[in-house]
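lol forgot to send this yesterday, sorry. struct tokens for the thing we talked abt
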């Protein structure tokens, strides 16, 4: 299918228009202080500037309110998140793409460093940025027959060091190297075998029960002792990005603006359309 040059900005506009007035992040806090954060950016919860910024702000507010735990899930049982919105990366305005990447860096810092326990209810496919969000939580429950992984190399992209560390801290260096160099997407069962996810659920109701059960493990643990321990374990990974934010941003912009990368993204976006048709 021939794709007109002006098609993608228009596609973003139309999507934004159809979601007008609706936040891409919904938050419900129960009487125990457990927050269920639902990503709701149809059709596939792609991580655009608005979603990433709102998720980041939500995490800051929940942190301030001393949330006792957080469950991250999708509005749909089909896709947890399709990762970064490729329309943010394809033929971007330099200022916008910079703003986007900075917002993503901040969002990851806020989620990875969230002091209360975090659990991802992976109730749908979780490629790339969707996998990153899941891996940033402390525990993962995933629906059967879905897929998860950091597939950046398949798009001709290079996952930045903080994506890599986030995976490495869960499944180790060897499995991360194998997974990332091949851009492998794992089925739920495969992901479970290598420890990329912790539990499998038949459906989203069961997944939510398992997520809550994980959070209940901390009911009798001092929140401050728990938070300090988590901080000690995660601090270095976070600091590595905090110290290198500017360099990471510049490297990202350089890579994404390359003609070859832009061509690859264009072809990939077309292939998504073809697969659909
Ligand atoms: N960005 C933008 N649009 C997307 C994306 C995306 N990531 N994924 C899907 N879409 C669009 C499709 O083009 C389609 O658009 P339209 O309705 O206008 O035709 C719509 O969403 C629905 O998509 P599908 O029909 O494919 O939906 P399915 O439910 O059949 O499949 C999947 C869902 C499995 C999630 C499938 O859409 C998919 O595989 N998407 C691509 C996922 C992907 O590869 N994401 C990678 C993003 S890159 C990233 O997150 C990290 C980049 C790091 C950069 C570092 C640089 C230095």
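and heres what i got for the seq, position by position
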């Amino acid at each position: 299918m021939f794709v007109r040059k002006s098609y993608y900005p228009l596609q973003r506009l139309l999507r934004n228009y159809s979601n007008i007035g609706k936040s891409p992040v919904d938050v419900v806090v129960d009487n125990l202080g457990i927050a269920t954060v639902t990503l709701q950016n149809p059709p596939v919860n792609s991580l655009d500037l608005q979603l990433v910024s709102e998720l980041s702000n939500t995490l800051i507010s929940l942190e301030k309110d001393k949330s006792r735990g957080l469950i991250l899930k999708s509005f749909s049982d089909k896709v947890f998140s399709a990762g970064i919105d490729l329309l943010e990366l394809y033929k971007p305005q330099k200022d916008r793409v910079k703003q986007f990447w900075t917002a993503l860096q901040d969002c990851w810092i806020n989620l990875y460093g969230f002091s209360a326990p975090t659990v991802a209810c992976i109730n749908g496919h979780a490629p790339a940025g969707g996998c990153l969000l899941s891996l940033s939580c402390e525990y993962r429950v995933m629906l059967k027959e879905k897929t998860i992984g950091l597939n950046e190399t398949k798009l001709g992209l290079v996952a930045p060091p903080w994506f890599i560390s986030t995976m490495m801290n869960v499944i180790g260096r060897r499995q991360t190297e194998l997974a990332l160099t091949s851009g492998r997407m794992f089925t739920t069962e495969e992901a479970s075998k290598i420890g990329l996810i912790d539990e499998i659920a038949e459906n989203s109701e069961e997944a939510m029960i398992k997520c809550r059960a994980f959070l209940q493990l901390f009911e009798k643990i001092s929140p401050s002792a728990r938070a300090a321990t988590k901080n000690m374990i995660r601090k270095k990974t976070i600091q590595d990005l905090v110290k290198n934010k500017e360099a990471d941003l510049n490297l990202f912009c350089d890579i994404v603006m390359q003609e070859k990368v832009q061509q690859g993204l264009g072809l990939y976006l077309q292939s998504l359309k073809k697969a659909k048709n």
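Confidence is low (pLDDT under 50) at residues 1-7. anyway ping me if u want another try
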